[in-house]
Write a structure and sequence with these properties.
alpha+beta, Immunoglobulin-like
């Protein structure tokens, strides 16, 4: 047994995990886990997988995988360029996953404006109809006008300003147009190592959901690095966590490939190609 293998086994024993438990958490075959502890790398599929399995083993038992790989790099075989190329999975296009809600709003917005414009026309038409002149008034003929007694000078003197009808001012009805609410935006900021960072703006809620296709260990911490969730989520299960009380969280998956994490049903991409990855979400409330 190598020094690296002994250190990993000691950490596993301290956690109370058996080889079978670790296989369930990491989805790595237990014969490979045993080979890592024994330092027998010849039975493993390649140098790239040796390093990946060691790192995943370490992080599953609470050790820093990157530090272990650097400390014991002389004991671990280095992968060739061809192995690295074959092992990097294709990353789905962010454009295909994101932006659906924004495009949907842009399709509906012109229709909303047309409906508001039609309502405004109907209201103005009704207002003008209510204030139209009364056609029932009797028309006065020219003969009747000639027969009317012309006002004398004294009559004109008796006319007071109050007797003159002043035109009524028409009220202008302004139709209020409700402005559309801003839509949620999940924006990628940067990636450092296995950690992808995002900003979440204009969100009304903060629901984290994990849909597990592959069994994985899930760890969620708050902005003060306090553990909020630390458990295994089995394949076929869905796990939800309400993060409304927090301004920042870090989501860590022991097995990221194939599993989907969403915030309010918007997919959070894990940008790294490693098996164990992190996603930090900053809530701009």
């Amino acid at each position: 047994m190598t020094e690296l293998g002994a250190r990993l086994k000691e950490a596993r024993t301290a956690k109370g995990y058996s080889i079978d438990d670790l296989q369930e958490i990491t989805k790595i075959q237990k014969r490979y886990l045993a080979s890592i502890e024994e330092g027998n790398y010849a039975t493993m599929p390649g140098a790239f997988y040796v390093r990946a399995f060691i790192k995943q083993y370490a992080e599953a038992v609470g050790l820093n995988g990157d530090e272990l790989l650097e400390t014991y790099k002389s004991e671990i075989p280095s992968p060739s360029n061809e192995e690295v190329t074959k092992s990097i999975p294709a990353t789905p296009s962010r454009r295909a996953l994101g932006g659906r809600s924004t495009s949907k709003l842009m399709e509906i917005f012109p229709m909303v404006m047309v409906v508001v414009f039609v309502i405004a026309i109907i209201v103005m038409s009704w207002f003008l109809f209510q204030n139209r002149p009364d056609d029932s008034e009797e028309s006065v003929t020219n003969d009747e006008l000639l027969q009317e007694q012309k006002p004398t000078f004294e009559d004109n003197e008796n006319i007071q300003p109050d007797d003159v009808d002043e035109p009524e001012e028409e009220e202008v009805v302004e139709e209020e147009v409700e402005e559309p609410k801003p839509t949620q935006q999940l924006t990628f900021v940067d990636m450092q190592g296995v950690t992808s960072t995002y900003n979440l703006d204009n969100a009304e809620s903060y629901l984290v959901k994990l849909v597990a296709v592959n069994t994985t260990w899930l760890n969620i911490r708050d902005e003060n690095d306090k553990i909020l969730v630390d458990q295994s989520v089995k394949a076929g299960e869905t796990f939800e966590f309400d993060a409304n009380a927090f301004s920042k969280i870090r989501i860590r998956l022991g097995h990221a490939p194939g599993n989907t994490v969403t915030i309010n049903d918007e997919v959070v991409e894990f940008k790294s190609t490693e098996i164990t990855q992190n996603a930090v979400i900053q809530f701009n409330k």
